[in-house]
From TrEMBL:
Pfam families: DUF2798. Keywords: Membrane, Transmembrane, Transmembrane helix. This is DUF2798 domain-containing protein. It comes from Shewanella phaeophyticola. The chain crosses the membrane at residues 23-44, 56-82, 94-114, 134-153.
Length: 163
């Protein structure tokens, strides 16, 4: 009977990364990348004021519960489509394609959620203008971050999350 109690412990892989570590890594990436982009977008929408950090935090939290989870789905979808449509292309080139698609998609969505949080729906023209200004201001930074991430961090993160 004693050997039956030890057997399940023998099946536990000591090299398996704890789920909490995976969650913390993903949250750290979301905070650094999303937080910096949303900070820039909030600044573009509202400028710097006494309420900037509160405005940024509210925009970040809105994006954290809406846009960022969708980003994981888009990343998986874009990676799958790139593998299927570009099977003879190197992984590095596919990762660049995925990075550009992710940057455009995520910046658009984060600019929209930030504009909604900061401007609201009272004027569709104002909402559109603030969305577009924030998107155009943040897109160069977003493209840079996503391409660097796709080429250097993404392969390592994928291996880490699978471990």
């Amino acid at each position: 009977m004693h050997s039956q109690q030890v057997l399940p412990l023998a099946n536990i892989d000591p090299k398996k990364t704890p789920v909490i570590h995976k969650i913390l890594v993903v949250l750290a990436m979301m905070t650094i990348m999303g937080g910096s982009l949303i900070g820039l977008m909030t600044y573009i929408n509202l400028g710097y004021s006494d309420t900037f950090f509160n405005d940024w935090l509210m925009s970040f939290l809105l994006a954290a519960v809406t846009v960022m989870p969708a980003g994981f789905i888009f990343m998986a979808l874009f990676t799958y489509v790139a593998q299927r449509c570009l099977p003879n292309t190197s992984e590095k080139k596919r990762n660049i394609v995925v990075g550009v698609l992710m940057a455009i998609t995520m910046e658009s969505a984060m600019a929209l959620s930030t504009a909604i949080n900061n401007i609201g729906f009272s004027s569709h023209a104002a909402l559109f203008n603030h969305w577009l200004e924030a998107l155009l201001a943040a897109l160069p930074l977003g493209l840079t971050l996503m391409i660097i991430t796709s080429l250097t961090i993404k392969p390592k993160i994928e291996r880490f999350l699978k471990s």
